[in-house]
Structure formats: structure tokens, C-alpha cells
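Task: complex structure prediction.
Instruction: return C-alpha cells for all chains below.
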Amino acid sequence: MIKEAKSIILYHRSHRRIAGSLGLFFLQYFFFIVPLFLVVIFFYPYITHVACSLAHAVLAPYFPDATVKILQFPYFLGNASYIDLPGKDPTLFFSLLNALASLALLIFLPTFKKTKHMLIFFTVVAFINFVSSLFFLFFPNRFPYEVVEFSELYIKQQISIWLFIPVITGLAVLPLPSSLASKVITVLVIFLYSLVFGAVRYVVFLFVLGKVSMLYMAIFFFVLGPLIDFVYVVGIYGVYVARLAENMRGNFALWKWS
Amino acid sequence: MEMVITLLKAYLLFTIGVMLVYSVRHYIFTLNRLFGEQRIYYQDILNSDLKTISVLIPMHNEEKVAANILDVLLLADYDKDKMEIIPMNDFSEDRTREIVDAYAQQYPFIKPLHRYEGERGKPAALNDAIKQATGEIIIVFDADYLPPRGILKNIAVSFQDPEVGAVMGRVIPVNTGGNILTRLLDLERSGGYQVDQQARYNLRLMPQYGGTVGGFRRKVLLDLGGFNTKILAEDTELTYRLSIHGWKVLYANRAECYEEVPEKWTVRARQIRRWSRGHNDVMFRYFFPLLTSPFLSFREKFDGMLLLLVYCVPVILLIGLIDSLFLFFWGDMSIFAGIFFLIFIGAYNTFGNFAPFYQVGTACLLDGVSRRILLLPFLIFNFFFNMWYISKGFFDACIDKLINRKAVWQKTERFRTTSNVEPSV
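Output:
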């Protein structure tokens, strides 16, 4: 009993590390992440086509007077699909209303003292919307994009996100002291989430640009684009690491001191 | 106009390059901390004859915390014949003087320094205290800290090594459970010390002396002319001054000490703006001396340079954001196509808090904390907050430099309410 108790007296946490190896990490990365990366490289024409078919199915009923089309553009190894539909230009009154609302937020948000971190985030959002509103107010005919261009760019970005997510999550998750299966599953969950999230967000963006206003394109681009992808990446990573930390409390074999 | 657009695009690529360098640097730190052999500190030579020490505690209106720190320092296991405690009462208008004097009457090795004349601020007070001090080693704690019993030995022991000029211990928030801010700051601290500082120590790069929970050689500082009272970040300045003169700065991960972190966003905003102002001032002064120092290796210089520039990164990103907004409305979205913009944004979210998410996650894992890791996604808000106030601090430093303005020291508000604020003597 005493011997057993003594065997689990551990050194201080300050110099502990995990009982893994860098070589094994690189090996796992090569065999599990690189193939996932290659899957995206070789199958993005198919993935984007599926996403666009879904978007088409959802959006077409809302645009009965116009054609919602699936187009293609050449991109690296193949053709990527994207949606074209007519955008809704804001009226001067709508732009003015948005400008005033954004201005009001820009004035009042900094006066709040609590939750200042969130307020600064929303101030950035209000600022971007304010700039966009002013642009449509003063240069309504000079807005340089149509929905089709935004749509094409979105797909390009989304392909990059799908490529980037296995790379970054593999780097973050694979070195951790856990079973290979759980690590691979975590990477796959994040990747699959990004597939679904990217497709759903595409539909929502196109719907708003087509039915509500083109004015919100800047916010979609700067705030609700890849920035949001990193929130769920970090979120799922956080859940995984929290569970791992909980499990490691009693598992002394995972620690090393040197 | 073509030229302007090209420049704006080039700036964006520059931003991406900077972010990549920092991301790789922090990933190397993370892997080193997870798998690398950890460079053990000097605690195994505790039986040696330790040097005399002077413990300095800068205090300006610290009635809420003064008694706490003196009480815990009285419990320290350091030979009392070899130590003195100098509470530095710097122009206090509250009961700080009264509290400190009560302890001094009881304990002869508590030798307060009351300052009501001359220059104000921590560096000036430290200079006066160092002249009064008799210890070979100066150890500094801010007044809100709660040093554990063995920490003085832990810090002092490293000075048995004649190459060591300064040592930094680890800072851990004591009020972590206060609110969302304190919890997020705890994550930030964890990543910064458990991984960042320890990895830099392991890799023989440049750990940073942080001005508290640390010590330095008194004679060395006096020989180098004492603290520069015009600099807000006297700690960072000391790190670079010692390093470029050939002294080693160490990090002692084992020397853990509790501190009180800000519980209000407004207080945190002032604190981080002041840090940025001070740090960037040091950057202006030491960038070239660092690169030309004959005592530092290439990788020490490279890491030292990245450390010096760390408070410029949020500014670079902020300008990048404005730059990209301009390009967007100009109709030049093509620069964003593909991976470039994504990396830019990814870096935003991952680097925004001085430590990428994988570094913070790893630090929490090594520390053995679990539930707090769930707050990781909330760092996105911290990022914008940091970007804004650090940028303000950067521009403060630029104006200081341009018009030769002297920065005024601002004290961080204390929040302690529960424990004993009355002297125990």
C-alpha cells in the first residue's frame, strides 16, 4: 500500500513534459494529415459541386424571377463550382439607415465599460458596416463587385479553408498524448464541420446578398468569413484538450520529467 | 494609383510574412515544451551558501495588499540574517506608510523607504532603494503578489552561477475565478510562462525578466547606471541591457508566485496600453544595440528581435486590416484569393493574444487544468481588445520619441477585498 502510494508521488509540474516522441508525431502527420490534405486537393471540384447543388436547391425557390445558376471556373487542378444569382443593391434610404445605425453604435459602444472586449469586436463590425454604408450612399454605382464575384471568391476561400484546417488541426492535435484514433477523429470532426459550415454559410450569404442587400458583403468578407472558422476550430480543439487534461490527471504514465 | 495599390498589396504580404514567422516560432516553442528535454533550473544546489538578498516591494497606495505581502514574506524560509525587506512607499496618500511602519517596528530586517520627494514612479523608486539596499542580490515583488515560502531561495540560488545577471520566476493569477477577464488572463499567462518562457530557457534564447517575481545582481545594475527613469518598461529594458552586455537572463519555472490580475476591462486596457508604450520605447532604444552585441549568438539575437517587436505585431495587423478594407472597396479583391488572406486571418485569431491557441492549450495541459481550456474561443474577443489598446500604446511611444515626452507611471488598480488588509503585527 505504502509502496504503491510512494510510486505516484510526482515531481513538480514546472519541468514535466509528455512521454511522446517528435518522430512519431511527424510520422502520424505524414500518414493521416497529408492524405486528408490530398483528398481536398483532388476532390475539391466534387466538394464544391455538392455545396453548390445544395445551395441551388435551397435558393432557387426564393428567386423565381431570376436564374440561380451553377457556374464553374478553372482553379489549380480542376474546375471549381460556384453560384450566380442577382444581388440586391441597397436604396439610398437603406444605406442611410445603416450608416446612422452604425454611427450610433460607434458612438455608444465605447461608452460602455463592461464587457469591453466584446464591445471592441462589435465596434470593428460597426465600423466596417459604416464604411460600407457610406460607400453605397456616396458612390452607389461604383461598388466594384457583383454577387457572382463574391461567390467565386467565397469558393476560393472555402477551398483554402478546407485545405488549411487539416494542416493546422493536425499540428495542434497530433502531438498531444492521446490515442491516435481519438486524435484522427478530432481532426476529422473539425474537417467535416468545416464542410457543412462552409456550405450552410454560403447559402446564408448568398440569400442575404440577393434578398436583403449587397451592403453587407464587406461584413461577410471581413468578419463572418474565415475568422469565424477559427472559432469552431479552436472551440473543438478546446473541448478535446479539456477532456484530455481531465483524463491525464490519474494517468501518470503519460508524464515524463527531464 | 497603380503604385499605391501595389504598395498596399505588398504590405499585406509583409503582414502575412510576419504572422508566419511568429506562428512558426510559437509552434517550435510548443513542440519543445511537449517533447524536448527540459532545462532544469538550479534548485538542486540549495545547500550552497546563499548570497545576501534585498527584497524590494514597490508600493504606491497599496493599503489593500501591503499587509498581505509582508505577512507571507515573513514566512519565507530564507536565512533572516541574510535578507532585508525594503517596502518602497512611493508618494502614498493612503495607509500604506502606517502599515509598513507597523511591520518595521516589529522586524528589524524590514527597512522601509518612504519617498515623498524627487522623481515619482517605479524605476526612480527602485534606484533609491537599490542605493539603500545592502544585499548582493535584489529581488522584486509587486505589492499585490503573494510569494510562497521557498521562492526567495529558488530565485537567489541561480546567482551562484557567475554568468547569471537576472532571473525571472513564474506568475500565476490568484483571482482566476473572479470573472471572464481573469480567466482569460490566466490562459494568457499560462501560455506565456509554462510554454513560452520555459521553451526560450530550454532553447537558450532570451527569457524575459518581468520586473517582479525576479531578481538581479545589485552591483551589476549599479555599474550599468541603474534604471532609466524615463522608461516605463524597466524590466524589459533590464533584460536587454544585461543581455547585450553579456549577462545571462534565466527563467525559473519552478519559482511560482501568485499575483492579482485586473478584474475590470478598463484597468486591463490601461495596463496593456502602458506595457505596449514601455515595451515599444525599449524596442526603439535597443533594436540596433541588440543586433550588434558581440555577446549574443545569432539565434539569441533573432529571438530577442522577435521579442522586442512583439508589441508591434498588433499594430501591423491593425494597419493590415485597414489596408485590406481599402483594397476591398477599391475592387482589388484578387490579392485575397486563395490561401493568403486565410493565413492573414488565421494569424489574427491564433496569434492575437501573444500566444497561439495551440500554445495556450498545451500550457493548460502541462499545468493540469481542464475546464478553463473551454474558454479558448473567447480569446477572439481579447484579440481585438489587445489590438486596439496595444496600438494606442505603440502610438504613445512614437509620440514620446518624437517630442521627447516623458511617460508618467500609472498604478494598476487593486481588487483584493477578502483577506486581511490589516497588519498582523
